[in-house]
Write a sequence for this structure.
């Protein structure tokens, strides 16, 4: 345990020492917030208003709060995973710089070394994404605040769970990489494509039926839906109090992927969290298997 803590401290120190990498990881959520506000805010606003009954006026504060919550939920669904690929650079960098040769001749077990990479990635990613969560909550507060204290606690738990999932996933993907160029290429591909695969950039109901069924098997789909449910629960309650029919709210929830289905069955938030936990455990077992295999080799 002491050896692992020392290695974790070493990995964390290297990450924060590289100011360019740290700032790029930290500024990514800020850039996404600006891009979402610039290009998607009006689109989401128009789509939202289109669901309202004719001759029905909903207060702008509720509309703005709902749109802001949707934007921040989509943002965190992406950054909680993609940032881990940027943070998890020490494992590849040690190979690229030849530092792993020193570890290979040391008495440190390879499994301990790989676990230290994983836990350091989780810790560093949590720091970045918690800052992103705070920025997102500040943005929501500027548009219309309806979240309760319990909702914020749920959101913190969602971020922790999703960061753990992303850290293990990035560890497995980056495991065979040996050069910085390969890691940068993988990071670019993940950053560009993950937002579509998790339904953050575009709700799944815009996709074809076949693609929706395929994406229903991806844990990332339910991670995004979990965040949206916890962000949008209070705005939906305020909409109902304002007189919006339940059927309309239900249709809005479906359009925002708050009511995903798996094999034709509705998936509730508890099941979403459970599926994400199970997926993280399975990936963690695979990661441990790879580290043990590397140790024997």
């Amino acid at each position: 345990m002491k050896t692992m803590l020392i290695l974790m401290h070493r990995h964390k120190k290297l990450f924060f020492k590289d100011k360019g990498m740290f700032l790029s990881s930290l500024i990514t959520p800020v850039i996404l917030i600006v891009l979402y506000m610039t290009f998607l805010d009006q689109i989401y606003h128009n789509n939202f208003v289109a669901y309202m009954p004719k001759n029905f006026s909903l207060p702008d504060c509720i509309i703005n709060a709902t749109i802001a919550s949707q934007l921040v939920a989509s943002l965190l669904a992406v950054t909680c995973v993609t940032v881990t690929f940027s943070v998890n650079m020490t494992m590849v960098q040690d190979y690229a710089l030849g530092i792993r040769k020193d570890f290979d001749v040391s008495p440190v077990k390879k499994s301990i070394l790989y676990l230290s990479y994983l836990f350091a990635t989780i810790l560093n990613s949590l720091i970045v994404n918690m800052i992103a969560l705070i920025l997102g909550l500040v943005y929501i507060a500027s548009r219309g605040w309806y979240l309760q204290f319990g909702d914020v606690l749920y959101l913190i738990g969602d971020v922790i769970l999703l960061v753990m999932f992303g850290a293990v996933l990035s560890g497995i993907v980056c495991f065979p990489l040996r050069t910085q160029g390969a890691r940068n290429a993988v990071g670019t591909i993940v950053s560009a494509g993950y937002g579509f695969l998790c339904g953050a950039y575009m709700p799944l109901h815009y996709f074809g039926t076949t693609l929706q069924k395929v994406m229903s098997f991806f844990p990332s789909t339910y991670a995004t839906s979990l965040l949206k449910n916890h962000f949008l629960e209070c705005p939906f309650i305020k909409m109902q109090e304002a007189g919006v029919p339940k059927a309309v709210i239900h249709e809005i929830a479906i359009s925002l992927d708050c009511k995903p289905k798996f094999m034709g069955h509705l998936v509730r938030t508890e099941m979403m969290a459970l599926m994400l936990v199970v997926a993280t455990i399975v990936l963690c077992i695979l990661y441990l298997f790879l580290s043990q295999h590397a140790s024997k080799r």
Summary: The chain has a mean pLDDT of 81.
